[in-house]
Amino acid sequence: MSLSDTIAAIATAISPQQGSVGIVRLSGDRAIAIAQQIFDAGGKQVWESHRILYGYVKQPLTKAIVDESLLLLMKSPRSFTREDVVEFHCHGGIMAVQQVLNLCLEQGARLAEAGEFSLRAFLNGRIDLTQAESINDLVGAKSAQAAQAAIASLRGKLAQSLKYLRSKCLNVLTEIEARIDFEDDLPPLDVKWVKAEILAVSQESQQILVTADRGELLRTGLKVAIVGRPNVGKSSLLNAWSRSDRAIVTDLPGTTRDVVDSQLVVGGIPIQVLDTAGIRETEDVVEKIGVERSRQAAQSADLVLMVIDASVGWIEKDTEIYATVCDRPVILVMNKIDLALTPSPSPMGRGEQESLTHSSMGRGEQEQILIPPLLRERGLVGEGIPIVKTAASQQQGIEDLEAAILRYIHQDTIAAANLEVAINQRQKACLLRVVQSLANVQIAIADQLPLDFWTIDLRDAISAIGEITGEEVTESVLDQIFSRFCIGK
Predict the structure, then answer these.
(1) I want to staple 82 with a disulfide (CB 3.0 to 4.6 A). Which of 77, 119, 291, 365 is the partner?
(2) Tens-place pLDDT, residues 25-37
(3) Rounded-to-integer distance, Cα 407 and Cα 170, Å
(4) Which of 136-150, 324-338, 457-471 ranks highest by mean pLDDT?
(5) Are 398 and 296 in contact (CB under 8 A)?
(6) Which pairs from 448-451 meet CB under 8 Å and 24+ separation?
(7) Other beta carbons within 10 Å of 450
(8) Which alpha helices (H) appear in 359-474, and where do they start and end?
(9) Which three-class secondary structure state does DSSP give residue 330?
(10) Helix 425-446 and helix 129-139, axial crossing angle in degrees, nearest 10
(11) Residue/partner pairs of 258-265 with CB below 8 Å, 24 or more apart
């Protein structure tokens, strides 16, 4: 990779017969020269910075028209990369955009690597590393809250806090090293001040660390699997929740043969909901494959919604299914609550059962659902295992279900913190180093070790903060970060 090259790439998502506009981006010393070779502006349009030109992209030799387009010119340093940048705004689709890109490459541009535009912006001082990472987060945002957190970081909220902490550490290091080098010429070091500064930086670092879990949730979301026996209303629940007919619903058991997923947003958190095939013993080869996939989906999920038919009550098959998911976080969903009636004693015997009183939705009367008390011993109906009552076919209980999920992911705590930024896992690892290094400095001070020992861990804390912002970062780290970007970014 060389910053002296002029790079080109398609900067928008391109799909056949989709999208009205596609953008090809050039950046580098020869960007304008290449554009002038293939773009005919016509008339008396002036090639000035931050102007939009109208014209045709043409083959340089044959003058054959490739596309009618707009050209946006941004001269250095007033561009995203702080290099000369040219954008061709072409008709959408594949052929026009690809042909314009090919012409740029034929005239001497190089195809950009993943994230190379953002990398150049970082290396040329246009953005710091936290802002570069937030660009990728913004592109991949799956919810409005994720986008807002990315924008806050892009505007420098995180970088400002980190640079402030780094400057405090540098000030302390300067004072300590001055006493090491010029001990006889300076007043004694104010140890109380040093301890106060170190403690303040450590506490503020820990406050930023709190946002890591929120950041992970906003970026990756939550995978939720809906499991249960056939015909308990799993697909109806998904349809009611997603307000669509995503899953097929019939009275026939085994209708859902494979895992059906749907993307939802609950409380700002992206959620991938997996509607699984009803788990039962079957001789149907296709259904058997679906049941096995259901079990795999449940094991890979962050949270399992186990659906029970409230009109039937808990039966032995439910116990068998629960045994396969009890090692995962579970929310028990009592569906068909509108059909629930006081059931007759089950084969277990009423002495082995216990009633759970609830208010039936839509009727206002008290009814009973029988649940074996042995499930308390297994923790299913004990403390910490929420029970939600729904009537999916009537679109009832969905808000209660979402509230239970938000409680599971501690959304109330997150919202109360009103956090503007959300760090990623790389930044979290660096901040953990900061906190540990500062703790070592505090130990060195308490043990009255020589000042040289104080500086070792203090330097490591400064270095770790610099790795987050990019002030101290290796080429391998940059490669790892920007390789996750799309080509046009």
Answers:
(1) 77
(2) 999 999 999 999 9
(3) 41
(4) 457-471
(5) no
(6) 451/176, 451/179, 451/180, 451/189
(7) 9
(8) 374-378, 398-408, 411-417, 425-446, 451-469
(9) strand
(10) 150
(11) 258/289, 258/290, 258/293, 259/290, 259/293, 259/294, 259/297, 260/235, 262/238, 263/142, 265/142, 265/143, 265/144
The tokens of 444 are what?
């060195």
Q: Do the beta carbons of residue 212 and residue 428 sit within 8 Å?
A: yes
- Of 52-56, 272-276, 413-417, 424-428, minimum mean pLDDT range: 413-417
Torsion over CA: 225, 229, 232, 236 (sign): positive
What residues does 295 pair with on adjacent strands?
Answer: none
Is residue 83 a contact partner of residue 99, using CB atoms and an 8 Å limit? no
SS3 427: helix
- Indicate the SS3 state at residue 35: helix
- The token pair at 123 is 């290396």
Round to whole Å and give the CA distance between 128 and 122: 6
Scan for tokens 């000030």, then name that residue: 171
Q: What region, left, alpha or beta, does residue 384 occupy, with left being phi > 0 and alpha being psi -120 to 50 degrees? A: left
Measured distance CA(68)–CA(335) in Å, rounded: 57
**How far is CA 13 from each of CA 88, 104, 249, 357, rounded to the nearest angstrom?**
14, 18, 35, 53
Residue with tokens 């002030």: 471
Integer Cα distance of 131 and 154 in angstroms: 4
* CB-based contact 63:86 (threshold 8 Å): no
Counting every residue written for the chain, the total comes to 489
Measured distance CA(85)–CA(78) in Å, rounded: 9
Instruction: Mark out the alpha helices in 29-115 (DSSP H runs).
Output: 31-38, 95-106
Contact (CB, 8 A) for 13 and 488: no
Q: State how far the Cα of 421 lies from the Cα of 416, in Å rounded to an integer.
A: 14
